Amino acid sequence: MKKHVEFKNHQREIFHFQLRLVVSIGFILVLLAVLLIRFTYLQAFRHSYYQTLAESNRIALVPIVPNRGLILDRNGEVLARNYSGYTLEINQSKTKDIESTINELSALIDVTPKDRRRFKKLLAESHGFETLMIRNRLSDEEVARFAAQQYRFPGVEIKARLFRDYPLGETTSHLIGYIGRINDTEVNQLQENDMAANYRGSDYIGKTGLEQSYERDLHGTTGIEQVEVDAGGRAVRMLSRTAPVSGNTLILSIDAKLQDIAEKSFGDYRGALVAIDPNNGEVLAFVSKPGYDPNPFIDGIDTQSWDELNNSPDVPLNNRALRGQYPPGSTLKPFMALAGLNFHIRKPEQTISDSGVFYLPGSRRQYRDWKAGGHGSVNMFKAIQMSCDTYFYGLATELGIDNIYSYLSGFGFGKKTGIDMEGETSGLLPSQDWKMKRYQQIWYPGDTVSVGIGQGYNLVTPLQLAFATATLANNGVAYKPHLVKEVKSSRGSENRFIANTPLYDLNIDPKYLDLIRRAMVAVTQPGGTAVYASLGAPYQIAGKTGTAQVVAMKQGEKYDASKIDERHRDHAWFIAYAPADNPRIALVVLAENGGHGGGTAAPIARKVMDYYLLGKVPKPLAKLKDEKESEHD
Amino acid sequence: MTRRQLWQRFIANIDRQLLLGIALLLLTSLLVLYSADNASMDRPLNQMRNIAVALTCMWLVANLPLHYLMRTAVPIYLFGMLLLIGVALFGEISHGARRWLNLGIMTIQPSELMKIGVPLMMAWYFEKHEATLTLKNYFIASLLLLLPVGLIARQPDLGTALLISASGFYVLFLAGLSWRVIGGLFVAGLASAPVLWSMLHDYQKHRILMLFDPSQDALGNGYHTIQASIAVGSGGILGKGYLNGTQTHLDFLPERTTDFIFAVYSEEFGLLGNMILLSMYAFVIWRGVIITSHASTYFTRLMAGSITLTFATYTFVNMGMVSGILPVVGVPLPLISYGGTSMLTLLLGFGMLMSIESHKKLVRT
After folding, report:
1. Could you report the predicted ipTM of this complex, rounded to two decimals?
2. Is residue B5 part of a domain?
């Protein structure tokens, strides 16, 4: 009985246990089924989704920055180039204490206060994750020294990069400009112009000068490398590659040697010089003095140096040739004379009697000639040769502002020349409309009088005046001035020439042109205002001097250079073309506070012409400022 | 004795089917480890050493008569408890948790010992009171379970605590705990969930929350889950091929030789490979169930059942964690993940299963 019960209990117990085991098996089967369903979901239904994720995990598109195009002068001399060098860069996100990292680095590698300041500026402008440069142009020794200690600096790395370099430095600073790090505004601009993709990976963009204006040509096309990366972002292997296309090479119409001579001829003078080939608009020299060294700008100039440049009274960052606006002074007279002939206001031989003072009919206001007592009996030829103010006061008054405006517009006054550089200013050719808009005043006859000698409201840029001079030299056929002669494609096939077709022809009577030419040649001959300009020259120079007032003189006051603060002295102009009978070069020289065109500006022009026409390199230049200022215009 | 007889003696207590299943999984382990270690032999060689040690221990246990095994229950359990208390008092902190005990010559993780110790002790206890089981006995057995689990949870090592709880619960369940009590426990568990939640550490909460939306913290806690899911999902039906897993070989998968080794396998062998792997596990589990059903004593039934079910649970939890349906808890994939301790614990368990299977007749007669 007992045995039976035990046996039964045992059986029951086994049965219960087996039941529980079956439940357990069911439980396990459920677990297995759950896994199987999950795997099927992930690997069959969502496979393509995860496949994409895995691919984007593993594949990175690395932009390959193209080499920036070179800039050469018309003879192949290099004005902007690239060289490869090493930089030391700090990855912000991987470096905890940047300050102490730099301090430790400076024990290994020379880090100047300038470097630190520049780095600080970069840091302030950055978005908190970029890699920023602390030192550039590392020597091989420095690279080796750092490499040995690299483990101590997890966020610091050495990078090989291409650097921009401007071999002529200051001489071509305003012409070439410089590149610099892309800023936020430029990022937005690139995005607006749909160019952002091509700048993936680019750190630099043209900021001023031709570097800016020809950015599209110089930058090139960014290549793309598809690389497999690991979780740390390190490239493991390359999958595919689209090669970058280097930027196009610019071949300038500028003659670097001429540019150099022109720049040096200024000595200590501030000012500008623009020389143009009148036959085709090619700009041969484009100088703004003083210049600056563009090289420090590339990697971000440090604040102190920037302030020095920016706050200098010499305004070295201002491109005077392109943007400086000055009264043209007497350089306007040949153009006024042509206007007078064109509208038949004056015949060439017609003379006036110059007593040294001009009165408007019914007015007692005096308009004085620069020469006390006047030039006596003066015809057009003489008026230009001796720069007689009284002659042109009368001529302008008789022409009237409307005729002056319409005629001088043809020579490009008051308009941008359309040169291939951004930032040009348009100068000012006054008109009745303009005065009404600007001052809500009607035009008075008295306004016209001073316009006649290029004072008044007139403003020109050196470039504008050069364009006008070139057009005059080319018998009224105007060519758009351009700095770039040819854009050479890096692919070698599609070279682009900047068009040398004339803009328009002013159709000036050859007789009139001949008269003006002879008068302008006389300017550089004994009896003219710029005798020094052609002294001993084996070719004829047609020129005209000019003076731009910096401070207006009171009625009856006499100009005395020696009594006036240097920076308030008049600016000196000289426009010229040569050889007079078959012009190959037309140029404008502006010497700020140079006082007198014939004395300071003309000798500079002569050196440039001598080199361009004769290949004559000037002797080491004497201090131009010490030159005697005997003449006046 | 001939050499043949010697061999017969040697393998007499080894269950061939179970050994076959285990061997297949171990070979898979070496294969996957080689890939997970970026085609280096370092870890596979170490793992071979681990396997050799663990297999030896398995052989020893398989040859151990059952009454010896029973006799070890109390000392192992008490020793384990002593160590756990020692860890709580003097343990070394590593990764923010106090799990290791430095014994001078080696550091040990007593919770690993308790994976065997707890069910062993509980099975022993039920065997002792087999004839007169009342609710009180279940209660005492539960205490035997909850004491070490509580200590381990405090370390904190929630994953191990839960898995030991599971193995203890299987003992209770197989010992016949009434359905009503189980139901009551289940309801009580649900009710106390908010309280338990509040007791969790922040990182633990985070891991659970991450399950619902791993992208919330894609580079932090969600990273493991996301990268593992990508690895598994991108494997597709047939896999990317051996040694061709991009997630694996490009370092995207974290902990890919240990807890996340399944993602490596899954990426390279795909859904088909997963089915094969699941079949291998199912085979081992099936064999464990058969052995359990053969087991002759109360103790062996409970022990065999608990070992088998725990093995199944480990497998499920690890694969569930890697494929993103369970929170990330530190549970290795049994028999495949790199590591000596878990290998040893598992094979000791299988040794016991073999011993149970080979000694069933002896007990019966």
Report:
1. 0.93
2. no
Cβ distance of A44 and B237 shorter than 8 Å: yes
Question: Of B170, B233, B289, which has the smallest distance from its Cβ to A43's Cβ?
Answer: B233
| Residue-by-residue DSSP string for A400-450 | -HHHHHHHHHHTTTTS----SSTT----B---HHHHHHHHS-PPPHHHHHH
CB-based contact A392:A380 (threshold 8 Å):
no
In the set A330, A387, A450, A534, the catalytic residue is A330
Instruction: Say if the Cβ atoms of B271 and A24 lie within 8 Å.
Output: no
Q: Does the pLDDT of residue A110 top 80, yes or no? A: yes
Q: How many residue pairs from chains A and B have C-beta atoms closer than 8 A?
A: 121
Instruction: Give the range of the structural domain holding residue A403, as residue numbers without chain letter.
Output: 256-306+322-487+497-626
Closest to B242 measured CA to CA, from B39, B27, B26 = B39
- Is residue A577 within a helix (H) or strand (E), and if so which, with residue range? strand A571-578
Give yes or no: residues A213 and A284 share one domain: no
**What tens digit of pLDDT does each residue of A165-211 get?**
899 989 999 999 999 888 888 888 888 888 888 888 888 899 999 99
Task: For residue A353, indicate whether it is catalytic.
Answer: no
| φ/ψ of residue A88, rounded to 5 | -105, 125
Alpha-carbon span B123 to B134, nearest angstrom:
15
Q: What's the number of domains chain B is made of?
A: 1
Q: Is A31 on the interface with B (CB under 8 A)?
A: yes
The string of pLDDT tens digits covering residues A43-80 is 999 999 999 989 888 888 888 888 899 999 999 999 99
Tell me, yes or no, whether A23 lies in a domain.
Answer: no
Based on the structure, what is the number of domains in chain A?
A: 2
Q: Does the model's pTM come out above 0.90?
A: no
Tokens of B72: 């070890």
A459-471 core/surface letters (b: 16 or more CB in 10 A; e: else): bbbbbbbbbbbbb
